Task: structure prediction
Amino acid sequence: MKFSLLLLSAVYTATATATTTTTAKAATHVIYSYPGPSPPASLLTLISSGKVGGLILFGENIDANLPTTIANIQKTYASSPDYNGTPLLIMTDQEGGKVRRLPGGPTLSAKQVGQSSDPASTAADTGTEAATTLAKNGVNANLAPVLGVYRSAGDFLDEYGRSYGNTSELVASCADAFIRNQQGQKVIATAKHFPGLGAAGADANTDLEPVTIDLGLDELRRVDEAPYSAAIAAGVDMVMTSWAVYPALDEKPAGLSQKWIQGELRQRHGFKGVTITDAIEAGALGAYGDDAARGVLAAQAGMDLILASARNVTQGEAILDALTKALENEEVDTEEFDAGTARIMALRRTLHV
Result:
């Protein structure tokens, strides 16, 4: 997105209704999840009440009725008193290869793309395939591509073929092509996991435990962050941050760090789009309280979307309540939060309803 924060805030303010509440505003920032193939009644009630910003889908949510399920969810949201004419964000991980929530393309993994005879062209094809698969199921956002530059064969990203390759140039060219083709089909792309997990060892999984990537800032910028510069130049809509700690810049996980989010990503790289956390329930965040507390910390650091992906509707509710309270108590910078709301709404306006 190429809008200034001032313009985004003005656009949001102009289109918000007089009845918009703090809870409704906070809800825009919370992505919920649910168990099984059918959304529970509690989630539908929250959606109809304007208390949901979007959903993330996992394999257990997928069946032949998914397009109808998503259409009904969007219809339920349209009946909300806080409906603003834009669809809810419906997202999943459709990276390719082994990491595909929905049946269909891309069948090639990022590693296979990088090893092909024409990686950029193949990556472009997989971006189109991902968009086609997602769009026909009513999914409007993809938490892909992965921009990690892997260091060693069999490490965290390479083990499952999730990295395009071990050079910044290869990863950047493939990511650029994937992003442009997928977003050309009106499906949001997400560059992840900033500033990069390419140096993470095979057992360094932030979903399970704290991970530290102890590289110098020069190497991080030269190798790991370089593909993000290309992705931003390609107009990537969203960036997901990593839960790893990078001591070269901060002792906090990147997704809870103003230095990484506001300083490195927004100021140094000039990213104007939407930021999204990795799973807020990740084991890497054990020292940072419960999920609700972590959601507030992420918002304080400058994250836009909070990903509540434990397949438990009450998780999203708890985060929403905590964000609402934090805003009312001025524990979160209102101006910065409103700018995030504006970015989210500007992105949602680009989507087909």
